[in-house]
Amino acid sequence: MNFSGLVLLFIVYFSIAPEVPVIDQAYSKLSNSITVEWADVAGATSYQVIAQAGTLFFESTVTGSPGTVTGLQAATTYKITVRSINSAGKSQPSPPKWAKTVLAAASVTVESFSSDSVSVGWQPVPSAVLYSVSVMRSDGSGTRWNQNTTSLSLNFTSLDPGTIYTIKVHAWDANGIPGDDITYSQITRPAAPSDVQITFNSGALEATFFVAEADGLSNYTILLYGGDTSINCTLSVSPCTITSLQCGTEYVVSLLANNEAGSTLAPKTWSLLSVPCAPIGIAVVEDNPGNLTVSWSHGNLSDYYVVFVKSDDGFEVHCNTSQSPCYFPSECGFIYFMSVFAYNKAGQSPLGELLNYTTAPCCPSDITPAFVSGDTLEIVWSGVRGAEMYETKAVDGTTVILCNDTATVCALSGLQCNTQYNVTVFSYSENRGSNTSCASKYMKTAPCSPEIKNITTVDVSSFMVIWESDNDGAEYTVTARGENGLWNCTSSGTSCILGKLPCGSMHMVHVLASTSEGTSLPSYSVPLETAPCCPVNISVVQVTQSVTNVSWSIAVGAQTYTTMLESPKGQAKCHTLEDHCLLGCITCGTSYSVSLEAVSETGLVSQCTYHGYSSSACCPSGVKLYRLSNSGIRVTWRVSPGPENYTVNIYGSKGNFTCSPFPGVSYCDVTEIPCGDVYTVVVSPVSGGDTQISFCPKKNIFCDMLRKFSWNG
Ligand SMILES: *[C@@H]1O[C@H](CO)[C@@H](O)[C@H](O)[C@H]1NC(C)=O
Ligand SMILES: *[C@@H]1O[C@H](CO)[C@@H](O)[C@H](O)[C@H]1NC(C)=O
Ligand SMILES: *[C@@H]1O[C@H](CO)[C@@H](O)[C@H](O)[C@H]1NC(C)=O
Ligand SMILES: *[C@@H]1O[C@H](CO)[C@@H](O)[C@H](O)[C@H]1NC(C)=O
Ligand SMILES: *[C@@H]1O[C@H](CO)[C@@H](O)[C@H](O)[C@H]1NC(C)=O
Ligand SMILES: *[C@@H]1O[C@H](CO)[C@@H](O)[C@H](O)[C@H]1NC(C)=O
Ligand SMILES: *[C@@H]1O[C@H](CO)[C@@H](O)[C@H](O)[C@H]1NC(C)=O
Ligand SMILES: *[C@@H]1O[C@H](CO)[C@@H](O)[C@H](O)[C@H]1NC(C)=O
Ligand SMILES: *[C@@H]1O[C@H](CO)[C@@H](O)[C@H](O)[C@H]1NC(C)=O
Ligand SMILES: *[C@@H]1O[C@H](CO)[C@@H](O)[C@H](O)[C@H]1NC(C)=O
Ligand SMILES: *[C@@H]1O[C@H](CO)[C@@H](O)[C@H](O)[C@H]1NC(C)=O
Ligand SMILES: *[C@@H]1O[C@H](CO)[C@@H](O)[C@H](O)[C@H]1NC(C)=O
After folding, report:
1. Ligand 6 atom at minimal distance to the Cα of residue 358
2. Residues of the signal sequence (predicted)?
3. Is the N or C terminus of the chain more exposed, i.e. has fewer CB atoms within 10 Å?
């Protein structure tokens, strides 16, 4: 107020100022300004335009018409005056004009809630009676929509999706004056996507999403709902991938297209099936040998299962089933590795538990005895698959003999002879323990040793051996071992006869029992001595009429000999260590039987008989010589009983003479005996054949040259 008083005083003071201008018109195009037009005043260098509303003044200084005052309030009536100015000062204000500012621009919010619409809303503008909204594509194509409304919002539909629109809004006042324009750009939400391509990688449990219609203006959000989780990924022209999907889940896939305006949900959803989870609770049992049962728990979204069973020799089998369990044939001594996979349309479950199962070791099947004796069974067999150790058990009903070994041989010792044992070889493995289903086999130990009870003589070279034994079905072999060899006999009873043993030898006799299982230990040996042999050659030579020399060849086994010549008239006997002896008291002309007893050191006697022996005929007695002539002699004798024929032998250096008289004649004449020599005259009986008897008494006769015989006795 004080200030305006001062101005007034100032104007009065400078009364030489230019003419007062006259306003032609004053109008408002924008809500904060009023434009004023006037006719120029001579001498004015500038003008001051003043707008006044109540006590508020706004002014601007311009060089000429028109001039504009800014900073005004919208929809307000101002009193407008103009003053001209030069160096001398300002003129008086012009006569006032009244002008009203237009309405202010509305405060607008624009949104797109769908792909084909935008919603425009605004705050009420004071004094506005109507609002105009225009919408058109910002690229200028297409229709322009204009609409008037009195309400505070408008929806425009049937727009193109994902398109930028230019929206203009202004208000009208009661005088039909349009207010300030305001322009917005708004993009409509993207079109609803129609399809998404889903690639499921079952191995990595990840899914890749690709939207074919993506043009780079929008991006897309994939939303996966499954179980109690939701996962998302965003993509534009390049695909996006969601990893770490869960197995055994069916996901609902929603697709959103996004731009600045917001998202548009695809009208439909897709389903994404993940692979089933790896089956759990896998169990393997072998209820019956050779039949493995693999079971597992049923898992979500599993259509069927495949069980793979691989043995450690690389052979693999599988079983395809819609439900647990599966049966597999198994063999002894293998390790089986099992894995179970579940399948659905999406593919195969991840690898789950890998189980292994070791079947019981195989049973040895070819158990054979390698050595059998009375107290030992050594058995061998072929090694079997899966066995780490063998446990051999022999049972005879009461006692149990065990042996453990990793080798495929076992010697069961300390057994009873002639006993049947139930022998079982169990195979053993650390994992499965003993295979209790191994078959057993009967095995018998070798027979017990027999005992020789007696040996009796059957004849000179045959002996019956009697033994004692209680083996079943055994065959016995008796062996006699002598210096010169072996002799044997066999029997299944308790005795047999050893024949043709050589004379004069010592034998050790033992008995062996044998069965198909084996041979017993030999019995204790019993000595058996055979009687001495008989001398092969024997000769009986008469030394004198009553003495006979008997000699023989050495007999095996004999120590002493007793020789005996026996006739009804008596016997002659000698007992000697030598191989000959002289027997006296032999009667001439008698038949003797010759026998010899060979006696061994231990007193065994062999009776040996030989051809009979006849002693020589008896010599004649009473031999006398008579001279027959100068050169002949007659020999006479007295015949002895027995011999019929005699022969006379005359021996001398100048010749030998024999004379054989007719039977029954007891003399013989020898003529033409050269003299001058001593002759020996012997008269001998002629026994059958030509045998000469040399021991008859001799007489000597001397024939001197005088042809005279003389003799002494
Ligand atoms: C809206 O109102 C204004 C002022 O009354 C008028 O000039 C214009 O033609 C109207 N527009 C429409 C589309 O009705
Ligand atoms: C415009 O659309 C919005 C959202 O769809 C709705 O809330 C509003 O009522 C609509 N306005 C008119 C005038 O139709
Ligand atoms: C996508 O996932 C992220 C992280 O999990 C989350 O923050 C976001 O809200 C999700 N978006 C949608 C649209 O669900
Ligand atoms: C997707 O588009 C929206 C809106 O345009 C933006 O906010 C967001 O960052 C985009 N996301 C990606 C991953 O590009
Ligand atoms: C295994 O045992 C099951 C049930 O006991 C039976 O059904 C199946 O036939 C057997 N499989 C073989 C190969 O023996
Ligand atoms: C078999 O399985 C057991 C336990 O599951 C494991 O300790 C063993 O090493 C496996 N054996 C083989 C040969 O894989
Ligand atoms: C043999 O081995 C089995 C299993 O280890 C054991 O039970 C048994 O006692 C063993 N027998 C002997 C005689 O060592
Ligand atoms: C033999 O022994 C095995 C194992 O000890 C046993 O199973 C079987 O019954 C026996 N056989 C007889 C006939 O006793
Ligand atoms: C041996 O057998 C003989 C003849 O049978 C008999 O006389 C003798 O007494 C037996 N000896 C023994 C020791 O049995
Ligand atoms: C028994 O003697 C015969 C004849 O000498 C021989 O062939 C056989 O091998 C012998 N038997 C035994 C068991 O010694
Ligand atoms: C004795 O001699 C005669 C004739 O030479 C003969 O025939 C006869 O058999 C002989 N007698 C004896 C006992 O030798
Ligand atoms: C006569 O006999 C003796 C004895 O037999 C004999 O040694 C001798 O040579 C014989 N003399 C003649 C001449 O034959």
Report:
1. 1
2. 1-17
3. N
